[in-house]
Amino acid sequence: MFGCDKISYLTPIVPAVAASDVVKKSSEILTSITLIKLLEGAAIVLVAYLLIVASERFNNWLSEKMPRRFRLIVRQGLPFWRAAVILAAVISLMKLFLHLSPNNILALTGTISLALGFAFKDYARSLIAGVVALFEVPYRMGDRVQIGEHYGPVVSYGLRGIRLRTPTDNIVTIPHNKIWTDPISNANDGALEAQVVTDFYLAHNVDIDRVMKILYQAAYTSQYTQLKLPIMVMIDENPWATHFMLKCYPIDARDEFIYKTDLLKRSKETFRKYGIAYPSVPAGFEEG
C-alpha cells in the first residue's frame, strides 16, 4: 500500500518538471527577437528568393547560348544551385535566431525531426527523396521520363517534386517520393538525343519490303533526324494487323513530338501514293 501511495504522490511532479525543462531549453536555444532581427530575416528570405529566380533565368538563358551538346549539362546544374541557396538561407536564419551550440543543434534537430515525422510526414518524405534523387539521378532537368501515366520532359526540379510538360502541353507536378514506389522510365538519361518510336499498323498482305523502305526513307529525309545514330524498322504481328515500329533519334530531344508528327505525315502520304492498305479492326476486338 505504501508503495502505491508513494507513486501516486510522485507522478504529478513529472509533468511540471518536464514543462519547465522545455521552457528552459527553448530560452537557451532562441535568441532575443527584435524588430531589426525580423527585418534581417525578411531580407534573407527575399534575397534567397531573388537569387533562385535569377539563377533559373540565367540558367535558361545560358543553356540556350551554349553549344547544343552542352545545353542539358547546364540545365542539370540548376537543382544544385537552388539547393545551395536554400541551404545558405536556412543556415543564416538559424544563426540569426538561434544559439547554435552543439547541444542546441542536437536538441533542435531532434525536435524538427519529430515535428516533421508527425505533422508533415508526406512532405518530409518528398524532401528526403528529393535529396536522394540529386545523387541517385533517376531523372534530371531536360530528361524525358514516364512516371505512372504521365510522360514528358522535366521542365522544373524543386526540393519537393518535379514538373513534367506532357504532349498536350499540360504541366504535371509529381512529388519526389514516387521514386520509392513507382517505376521511372527515362528515355534519354541525360543525353541530348532520345529515341522516338513511331507505330504503324498495316494490313497483313502489304508489301513488307516496300513498307520498310518507305519508313527508312521518311526517317533519313526528315530535317529532325540525327543521322549519326541508327535508324531501325521492327516488325511485330498482331491478330488484326502487321505492326511496324520505326525507331530513330531526333537531333534534339525537345523536338520529339513534332518529329513524330513529321514521320507520320510523310509516311502516310507515301502509303497513300502506293495504295498501301490499313487493316479493318474486327467489331468488338480489343488489342491485349
UniProtKB/TrEMBL annotation:
Residues 196-277 form the Mechanosensitive ion channel MscS C-terminal domain. It is a multi-pass membrane protein. It is found in: Cell membrane. It comes from Phormidium pseudopriestleyi FRX01. Keywords: Cell membrane, Membrane, Transmembrane, Transmembrane helix. Signal peptide: none annotated. Its main location: membrane. It comes from the Bacteria. This is Mechanosensitive ion channel family protein. InterPro entries: LSM_dom_sf, MS_channel_C, MscS_archaea/bacteria_type, MscS_beta-dom_sf, MscS_channel_2nd, MscS_channel_C_sf.
